[in-house]
Fold:
Amino acid sequence: MAAKRTGGKKDGGKKGGGKRGGRAAPDGDSAGSGAHDRAMTVSVFGMSTEGYDIARQAAIDGATVFIIDESNPTAIELNAEIARTYPHISSLQDDEPIMSLEPLHVAVSRSDYLFFAPRIRAQLHSTKASTHSLFKDAVEHVKEGASVVFCVPVGIGENSEYVSILQHDTGLEVGSEVSYYYYPLESGRPPPRMVGSADPGRVDGRLAAIFAPDPENPAEFATLAASEYIHAMEIVSRFASICTMLEVAQFVPRESVPEMAVDDRMQESYLDGMVGGLLDMRVVGLSLEDAKSLQRLPTLYAKGLDSYIRRLVDNTKQIIRDCDMRTTKTKVVILWSFDDHLMRGDRNEMCNVLASRLHDWLADVDVYAELPPGIFLTDKPMAVIPCSMKDFELAAAAKAEKPNLVVVKATPLCEQFEGS
Structure:
């Protein structure tokens, strides 16, 4: 059965300094093979794809693993057999295998390592408050000697706030009684090349092996401040490139679109890639209120993306008219196969925005993760907007079966696919 997405909103759950550290120099435990042993207990707070990937590998490697649902104070114990059977958290949730349950406080109090990787679905203005609340729930029962790994992206200088929460809610001193690391994961992208640490001079070998399983490429550690700067630099650089394409594309006249479309950057940049990591960009911008020049970059990108969504809708409308299709009798399908379990809700949010904008002038708008069987059995005119390369390939195959299908690619040029 095809997975249909709804256009409605989804609810979520409830400075350092100093010199840069070097490569991991493990204390005590070896960072080589067998990084996880059966005496090690790991808890992952959050039913996210990124969190599950960590939990799954730890379970396969022999650790005792708990996954905590951020919307429910209950932990499920993930054993190696189930971890091997279910490669993705969506399959685990769909199948609902029998698993042992523990209260949140029991799982956390037993854990040597707590990874904070919840799904963030709050509105932008309340993102920090929501993350603070979830972090307090996660760390309240952390034991002395444990390590807390913060996997959610934050702005410059903001790890200090979570260090304060950790110390206040546990009564433990970060650095001497409990460890804190910054490790902003993003599914589909390489892991952070620099791990932030409240004490970069002292590295846990087992944790270093989780960060970088390949002993030939050990993890590098830096102060929390340095890791924040590095992540901010990488995220701003990524979006600067995308923003350039969007800004140039809006001036390309329709007659020049086919010529511009041969550029690989224009062909391969879909809406899915434009919004991936948008949360990171926003939190960096919000943390730079006093740095006016750098703060302009996140603001400009947000405006550029909003302008692009309007342009995509307007171009779709014009293409439908050019094809002599009446808007009152045309069905528009947003085809977007993103992962609902990612920590960041950027794609969920932007999908809702696009659907809402289309609904403003068209009554029949649906959002699908894949085209359902039988969707083309109707004679009703139809347009599909694929939002990733994978979605475009599905739409192109559908057009081969239904030549009068209109396909508008969600790329910077918003070009119409004529078929081949």
User: Anything to note?
Assistant: Residues 132 and 162 are 8 Å apart (CA to CA). Confidence is low (pLDDT under 50) at residues 6-38. The two ends are 28 Å apart (CA to CA). The first helix runs from residue 49 to 60.
